[in-house]
Structures are given as C-alpha cells and as structure tokens.
Here is the input.
Amino acid sequence: MATAYHNLSEYDFNSVPNAEHMKFGIVVSEWNFNITGALLKGAVETLKKHGAKDENILVKTVPGSFELTFGASQLIKNTDVDAVIALGCVVKGDTPHFDYVCMGATEGITRLNATTDTPVIYGLITTNNMAQAEERSGGKLGNKGDECAVTAIKMIDFAWSLKK
Here is the structure.
C-alpha cells in the first residue's frame, strides 16, 4: 500500500511484543541527516516505548545510504544484536545516481536478509523531493523510523518463535 494512504506511525500497540530483552543495531546515513536524524529519533523512541533498554540499542553512522549494507553487515558480524534497522534517505536528482544508490542499498539489504540469521529492516526513504522525505520522517505521513522499529521487534519475535 502506498504511504500516501497509510500513516507510518499508526499501528496496533498491543500487537507488538515486549522488546525488553531484545538487542537492536541501528545504522543510519549521515547524508540528509535532517531526515535520517528524525527517522533515528522515531525508531529509538518507538523501541523504548515497547520496552527496549538504552544499553540494548546500538547506533552507528555511515556516510551515505549506499554504505548501509556494509554498516549492517558489520553490526551483524561484530555485535550480538538481534536485528539491524538501516535508515537512509535518497532524494531524486537530475542524474541516474539516485537509481544506482537505491538499487544497491535495496539489493544489499535483501542479500543480508537472505544470507544471515539476523533480520535487517529496510528504512530507506526514496523520494522525488525533500518535501516527500519530510512527510515520511515525522510529517503528515508519520515516521518511517517508527514503522521500522515495530518491524524489527516483530521480526525478532518471529525468529525467536522458530527456535523454541
């Protein structure tokens, strides 16, 4: 469903498991930090709202959205996080650079999900203009960071349920 028809911050609070014992890695792009910083704030606040402890939320930055895959892979390899949330923002410009960055980050995150046992949550906003990015990072369409946090909690719970 298109974001225009769904507020990214609306969800059934009771449908989200308790995150008290879960460990989260968040890798966030420094590029467009006015947007990615808002996504980060939303994600952290939502994780805490569902019981996550400060000491169980590890935040690392990478220069841009293309580097999200490497950042996520390093968190998986070098920490004991239960999920990684990858947050970035790419705004379309006048060159095909947008397409390459979006495709590379998307394929990289997909590959990590298919080849590791740690869920990597896709929090890359890809928009035609900055106004659309602002609408999705705490504006009238909610905050994609909130949605990513809820997804991370649910995916950890899903993975844990298969190990019982």
The two ends are 33 Å apart (CA to CA). The longest strand covers residues 83-91. The mean pLDDT is 93. Strands lie at 24-29, 57-62, 83-91, 120-127, 137-139, 142-143.
